[in-house]
Design brief:
By secondary structure, the chain is of the alpha/beta class. It folds into 2 domains: 186 residues, 3-Layer(aba) Sandwich (Rossmann fold), CATH 3.40.50; 157 residues, Glycogen Phosphorylase B (Rossmann fold). 39% of the residues lie in helices and 16% in strands. The strands form 2 sheets. A 7-stranded parallel sheet has the order 3-2-1-4-5-6-7, with helices on both faces. It has a 6-stranded parallel sheet with strand order 10-9-8-11-12-13, with helices on both faces. α1 crosses α14.
């Protein structure tokens, strides 16, 4: 099987995974060993979230299938069910050999379930990680158990996946593919970024991203605490909108109202991965509860203030300060970070160099199971 051209479908549901997948997608699209099918759904095809599928088309992919499943008002059970049905239809229509999934969202779990039913083997990226304050954590581990090839970001995560009963031969450490953006030469310049945002960016630049804490209570209370700290600390703030989880619209509405009339604050719905990485490479601090603050911001040289429990359990490196959702604690951490020198980049133990070539080679040479069965590997037993 490994020598054949294989039809590979990749499912992406928003900016949160496309920016991570992009380098691998471009590499696969240029590789004759692949017939790449890109399935863009959810936030990608919704005007409320910037219709980021248009940026995917601009990247020149030949086959992009749009899969809408979001409702007018956030309804995670209904949206997850619709995503399962829609991905099932795509699997039936296009008959890919392999489905590639990244991460931990409920629609990603729905796509994995659809592939299980359709008997399509799954490649999963970023398994074995922890984010204890969100339901994404359970979804990620469930996707691991539905998957057959595990392309993980770190040795720690590889060990967790193996602990879950997966065959070590099918667990490959490829690094964190989102860090491939460090090597891009097409990121907007500082002047271009200022034009995109409509204001000049000074050296005290802070990126703010707050998502709903889906296993906690009071996400809006956390956002208010962050906003209170921002009011007290002089800086330029660029706020990026939350995702489509339940409670996200309340956060979005709060930021829209709060930013009105504030000359030092910009609220953006969807920057796109190029502008976001350009911004992160200039930012002094990344503030909030997004995984990009834990995985990617330290590599870009920014200090990180992680608020609340959403990312509890994730591997830390660089300068990450964890604070409770208390305005005084956030204010103190923010003031300290802004007064210190901006950091240099740090790989934090992730495999150095681009992850995309390792990912592409792993998928191209994988002797995938047909039918996609697998055996639980019991660590108490000697493997046979």
């Amino acid at each position: 099987m490994s020598g054949e051209c294989r039809c590979v479908a990749v499912f992406t549901s928003g900016r949160q995974d496309y920016g991570i997948l992009r380098s691998s997608l471009l590499a696969m699209s240029a590789d004759p060993r692949f017939d790449l099918r890109l399935w863009a759904g959810g936030m990608h095809v919704d005007e409320r979230f910037g219709r980021t599928v248009d940026r995917i088309h601009e990247d020149g992919f030949a086959h992009v299938r749009e899969i809408p499943f979001l409702k007018a008002t956030a309804d995670v059970p209904a949206e997850t069910a619709t995503a399962l049905t829609a991905v099932s239809s795509a699997l039936e229509a296009e008959h890919p050999d392999i489905l590639v999934l990244l991460g931990d969202r409920t629609e990603t779990l729905a796509a994995a379930t659809a592939a299980l039913i359709a008997r399509v083997p799954i490649v999963h990226l970023h398994g074995g990680e922890e984010s204890e304050g969100a339901i994404d954590n359970a979804a990620r581990h469930a996707i691991t158990k539905l998957s057959h090839l595990h392309l993980v970001s770190h040795q720690v995560h590889a060990e967790r996946v193996i602990q879950m009963g997966e065959n070590p031969a099918n667990v490959i450490i490829v690094g964190a593919p989102g860090l491939d953006n460090l090597y891009r030469d097409d990121l907007p310049t500082s002047d271009e970024l200022s034009g995109i945002l409509g204001r000049t960016l000074d050296h005290r630049l802070v990126i703010v991203t707050m998502h709903p804490a889906t296993l906690g209570e009071g996400s809006l209370g956390e956002v208010r605490a962050v906003a209170s700290a921002m009011e007290a600390v002089d800086a330029t703030y660029v706020i990026t909108a939350p995702n489509s989880d339940r409670g996200g619209e309340d956060i979005r509405r709060f930021w829209r109202e709060w930013t009105t009339g504030r000359s030092n604050v910009v609220f953006v719905e969807a920057l796109g991965e190029a502008a976001y990485w350009s911004l992160m490479r200039q930012a002094h601090v990344v503030l909030g509860n997004s995984s990009s603050g834990i995985i990617e911001a330290p590599a870009a040289g920014a200090a990180v203030i992680n608020v609340g429990d959403r990312q509890r359990g994730r591997l830390r490196y660089g300068k990450v300060v964890d604070v409770s959702a208390n305005d005084a604690a956030i204010r103190a951490a923010l003031s300290t970070a802004l007064d210190e020198s901006r950091l240099g980049s740090d790989s934090g133990g992730y495999v150095r160099g681009r992850a995309a070539p390792r990912i592409v080679e792993a998928i191209a040479t994988w002797d995938f199971p047909d039918p996609p069965s697998k055996r639980f590997r019991d660590l108490r037993c000697t493997p046979t």
